[in-house]
Design a protein that fits this description.
four-stranded antiparallel beta sheet; mainly beta; single chain; 11 strands
Amino acid sequence: EVQLVESGGGLVQPGGSLRLSCGASGFTFSGSVMGWLRQAPGKGLEWISKISCTGGNTAYVDSVKGRFTISRDNAKNTLYLQMDSLKDEDTAVYYCAKYPSCKWSVRHDSWGQGTQVTVSP
């Protein structure tokens, strides 16, 4: 059974930083592209970033480029999202997402329970 467990969310002031982690189990972590999604209050699920199986290729939605950094540690089956220069509009529940393989241009097939990130003075 695929399990994705996010942690590291919390309350942070604008301009601050947080690092999210996602522990993965139940599948071959190094054999899956991984990513992050988020859902802001009253809005739909938004894709924000993904990383290739080896970590050598990454992609971001324009709104987080230059502020967020995705990374992975295949030895620890863990995905990370370093979030810097946080803005009010980054407030959302953040979800770790798994893709079905190392193919880059396919849709994610599962995600975790999420961790709340609140950016507020």
